[in-house]
Write a structure and sequence with these properties.
Layout: H1 3-28, H2 34-49, H3 57-72, H4 87-110, H5 116-123, H6 128-137, H7 142-165, H8 182-206, H9 211-226, H10 235-250, H11 258-290, H12 294-301, H13 306-315, H14 320-351
Helix pairs in contact: 1-2, 1-10, 2-10, 3-8, 3-9, 3-10, 3-13, 4-5, 4-11, 4-14, 5-6, 5-7, 6-7, 7-11, 8-9, 11-12, 12-14, 13-14
Keywords: Membrane, Transmembrane, Transmembrane helix
GO biological process, one term: regulation of gene expression
Protein name: AbrB family transcriptional regulator
């Protein structure tokens, strides 16, 4: 390993240590989703304080794979009879995304005074990497887009569990039932590791969105729905993966001064407030119309990350499969619709 690679590894291990300490603190005060939120908060503070920590997309992948396997294990034959309940929420999703995007893009143009390209891709309810790449190709400020999306996800993941906690108490989820015994451990190692490795391979080959999460999730879901196995991931393994996930999110602010961070958070807070207001309104309306739990739809429609919102659903004993399906649909719709919308906006400006 090169000196630079060794230094990166040490910084990542330091981030995990800081994240684990933050997670333990949040767990001790019974905060919702403690290992993600505590790790995320602690690493964000450490990043701005200038501590030698670092985490990247590459270091996030093993943790995302574990979470993908966990989420896949929540799928099963019981979901099929519920599929008809998703028709209306899924059909309404494009209109929800269009409403949320229009309001946020307008906010970044009028309030943040971003240029049209930066405002457009900063306001899209899509993934960070995809929006940064698309924006950069069209002359936008990719750093601003990345920071805004990172801060938006940070705020949503941090705020939403506390808001939902007011109405729903967390319960033990069957997908993370502790596993004991030598035979169970060997079986878990075979199935869990096998789903993770095969899923990573398939996800990379097929270039799936968020392949490091979706690939293992798809393989694990197929194993559980087919009845080949019904393994469960131990709670300690999921907690470790959540610490890594939170640390990666907190380390997005490495290199920022406190003043820069507060400015980004203030701008992101405005768009987050808009997105959450739209999410609550649509979830309540569509939930009433379709007869689906509005809290579940709030997580399914929310502008947070797929893994994070699914983890919240899992902690509340709601159906994470519903959240996964809606977020994957959201990602695909934004990937297809965002370039088309920007091109259309350009043609309209040219015509004017």
């Amino acid at each position: 390993m090169s000196p630079r690679g060794f230094d990166t590894l040490l910084r990542f291990l330091a981030a995990l240590a800081v994240g684990a300490a933050g997670g333990a603190l949040f767990w001790s005060i019974h905060a919702p989703l403690p290992w993600v939120l505590g790790s995320m908060a602690a690493c964000a503070v450490a990043s701005v304080a200038g501590l030698p920590i670092q985490a990247s997309a590459a270091t996030r992948r093993p943790m995302a794979a574990v979470i993908g396997v966990v989420l896949g294990s929540s799928f099963g034959p019981h979901l099929l009879p519920q599929a008809r309940d998703w028709i209306i929420p899924l059909a309404a999703l494009p209109f929800f995304l269009a409403t949320a995007a229009l309001l946020c893009v307008t906010y970044f143009r009028k309030v943040a005074k971003f240029d049209p390209a930066t405002a457009y891709f900063a306001g899209m309810p899509g993934g960070i990497a995809e929006m940064v790449v698309m924006g950069a190709e069209r002359g936008a400020d990719e750093r601003a887009i990345g920071l805004i999306h990172g801060a938006r996800i940070f705020l949503v993941v941090f705020i939403l569990p506390f808001l939902i906690r007011l109405d729903h108490a967390p319960v033990a989820a069957s997908a993370i039932t502790p596993v004991t015994g030598d035979v169970a451990s060997w079986s878990l190692l075979f199935w869990g590791l096998g789903c993770a490795l095969l899923g990573l391979l398939i996800g990379r080959l097929l270039r799936l969105p968020a392949w490091h999460l979706v690939g293992p999730l798809a393989v694990s879901a197929a194993v559980h729905m087919s009845g080949l196995a019904d393994f469960r991931i131990p709670g300690w393994a999921l907690a470790a993966a959540q610490v890594g996930l939170g640390a990666t999110m907190g380390c997005r602010f490495v290199g920022l001064t406190l003043k820069e961070l507060l400015r980004i958070l203030a701008l992101a807070a405005g768009s987050t407030a808009i997105l959450l207001a739209v999410t609550f309104a649509w979830a309540a309306g569509i939930g009433t119309l379709a007869g689906v739990d509005p809290v579940l739809l709030t997580l399914a429609y929310s502008p947070g990350g797929l893994a994070e919102m699914s983890m919240v659903a899992l902690s509340l004993a709601l159906e994470p499969g519903v959240v996964v399906i809606h977020h994957l649909t959201r990602v695909i719709l934004v990937l297809i619709g965002a370039p088309l919308g920007f091109a259309s906006m350009g043609r309209k400006s040219g015509a004017d």
